[in-house]
């Protein structure tokens, strides 16, 4: 490869910029996919690298024609590969069926026919033989949009200048993962987690019942490393995931005492989840957790513990669950 290897710039978790600075920022939808840097050599070829630097071109054969989209102009582009559900929303669980197939071309081709991906492009770092990382975000976006990269499996969505509060609210109303705020005057910092890019993740919270726990390791030895949680649906306790973050040391110690007092040999979940090394408890503890989205099977993605809900009975932690995958 003749193009320079450029690791992607990363965003820092945070909140919206102050209202007085709103006009100095651009706002892009935070996508729930796989970060990809695309290398177009200008000879019709394309090479895709994941955030880790691993080459993953073979996993996404439908993106190969992008290599011809700019003719003889070489470029390095930043974007996110998505798998879209029937409603047109990004579905990370669908995407997982496409990931990891870079060295299995036959299987990758079959999966591409079943679950095609879409590459959302949002930055350019090298163009026409010139490094453009030192240019401002605003100038890079102008150059990117002039390329007109909109095809059957890729697109360049517009960024919104200003109006951050409205942009964030729109992502919540449409059930999107969140928002990325990018300072208009910011340069591209390869491999750096920068405050010039701020990511805001839309999170949900729900009540869950604790049905078990997994032992902690290292400094957490003797304490719960994670709790196994469920919600009532159709008269039974359905497992919805394990939660391993969100406690202070004292809260984790308090939780350990409550779990020991509720120990049982009977798994309270129906069906029994495929979890190795679990300790079961009588399902009477209710907690509130925060999470990003649910999988199609109803599992919580990226859950973290918020608080115990001593004011609620286990029957109060119920939810509308998807069809039973079993």
UniProtKB/TrEMBL annotation:
Swiss-Prot/TrEMBL keywords: Ligase
Coiled coil (UniProt feature): none
Chain ranges passing through the membrane: none
EC number: 6.5.1.1
Gene Ontology molecular function terms on file: ligase activity
Domain ATP-dependent DNA ligase family profile: 110-233
InterPro entries (UniProt xref): ATP-dep_DNA_ligase, DNA_ligase_ATP-dep_C, DNA_ligase_ATP-dep_cent, LigD_ligase_dom, NA-bd_OB-fold
Catalytic activity: ATP + (deoxyribonucleotide)n-3'-hydroxyl + 5'-phospho-(deoxyribonucleotide)m = (deoxyribonucleotide)n+m + AMP + diphosphate
Pfam families: DNA_ligase_A_C (PF04679), DNA_ligase_A_M (PF01068)
Highest taxon above the source species: Bacteria
Family of the protein in this entry: Belongs to the ATP-dependent DNA ligase family.
Protein name: DNA ligase (ATP)
Organism: Streptomyces coacervatus
């Amino acid at each position: 490869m003749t193009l320079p290897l450029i690791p992607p710039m990363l965003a820092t978790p945070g909140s919206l910029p102050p209202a007085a600075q709103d006009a100095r920022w651009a706002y892009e939808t935070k996508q729930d996919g796989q970060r990809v840097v695309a290398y177009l050599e200008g000879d019709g070829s394309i090479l895709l690298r994941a955030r880790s630097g691993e080459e993953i071109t073979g996993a996404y054969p439908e993106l190969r024609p992008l290599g011809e989209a700019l003719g003889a102009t070489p470029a390095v582009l930043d974007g996110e590969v998505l798998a879209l559900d029937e409603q047109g929303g990004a579905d990370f669980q669908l995407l997982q069926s496409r990931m990891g197939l870079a060295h299995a071309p036959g299987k990758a081709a079959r999966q591409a026919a079943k679950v095609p991906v879409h590459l959302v492009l949002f930055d350019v770092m090298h163009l026409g033989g010139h490094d453009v990382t030192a240019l401002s975000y605003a100038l890079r976006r102008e150059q990117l949009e002039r390329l007109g990269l909109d095809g059957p499996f890729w697109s360049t969505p517009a960024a919104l200048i200003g109006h951050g509060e409205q942009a964030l609210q729109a992502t919540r109303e449409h059930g999107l993962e969140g928002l990325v705020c990018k300072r208009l005057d910011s340069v591209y910092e390869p491999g750096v987690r920068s405050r010039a890019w701020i990511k805001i993740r839309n999170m949900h919270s729900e009540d869950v019942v604790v049905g078990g726990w997994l032992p902690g390791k290292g400094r957490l030895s003797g304490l719960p490393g994670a709790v196994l949680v469920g919600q009532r649906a159709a008269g039974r306790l359905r497992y919805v995931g394990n939660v391993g973050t969100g406690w202070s040391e004292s809260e984790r110690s308090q939780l350990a005492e409550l779990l020991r007092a509720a120990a049982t040999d009977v798994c309270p979940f129906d069906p029994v989840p495929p979890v190795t090394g679990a300790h079961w408890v009588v399902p009477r503890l209710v907690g509130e957790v925060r999470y990003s989205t649910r999988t199609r099977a109803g599992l919580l993605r990226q859950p973290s513990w918020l608080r115990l809900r001593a004011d609620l009975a286990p029957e109060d932690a119920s939810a509308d669950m998807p069809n039973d995958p079993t």
